[in-house]
Write a structure and sequence with these properties.
By secondary structure, this protein is an alpha+beta fold. The protein has helices at residues 13-18, 21-28, 42-48, 88-91, 121-126, 129-137; strands at 5-9, 32-36, 56-60, 70-74, 80-83, 96-100, 105-109.
């Protein structure tokens, strides 16, 4: 069965909510939404999505408030949902969220910006395709 999946870097779910996020989501009518850079704690993500019906909502927030964060919204309830990779430097920033479904795994990730002077290039490289592929295989 074909599904409509949408991945969206929100740059702040609360700001987008004020601009009509719920109406946008209803209009797009995707089966699954993957959000990156929610910039909100889990309870704030839920609050920003008030009025969105028919979706199971999973959020993985950074320890630092108002920073990074990922979320998955799905019409079909997953078998399970996993926060992070088990690597503290990534997990503290809420960068990887995985949902297990009957026929597939869905992974949403928010890779850090390397910043000016490549200050975070090592962190960015460590959350590259290799580690995500290894995570998907476990």
């Amino acid at each position: 069965m074909a599904q409509k999946l949408i991945s969206w870097n929100l740059n702040g779910i609360r700001a987008v909510a004020k601009k009509g996020l719920i109406d946008i989501l209803h209009g797009l009518n995707a089966d699954v939404y993957c959000f990156q850079e929610t910039k909100a704690q889990d309870d704030q993500v839920i609050e920003a999505l008030t009025g969105l019906e028919g979706y199971h909502i999973y959020s993985f927030s950074a320890i630092k408030k108002g920073y990074s964060g990922t979320a998955i919204l799905t019409k079909e309830k997953p078998i399970s949902v996993f926060n992070g990779l088990g690597i503290a430097e990534h997990d503290e920033e809420g960068r990887v969220l995985t949902a297990e479904f009957k026929d597939y795994y869905l992974i949403t990730t928010y890779v850090p910006n390397s910043k000016s002077g490549l200050l975070r290039a090592t962190l960015q490289e460590s959350l590259g395709c290799g580690i995500i592929i290894a995570h998907a295989r476990t």
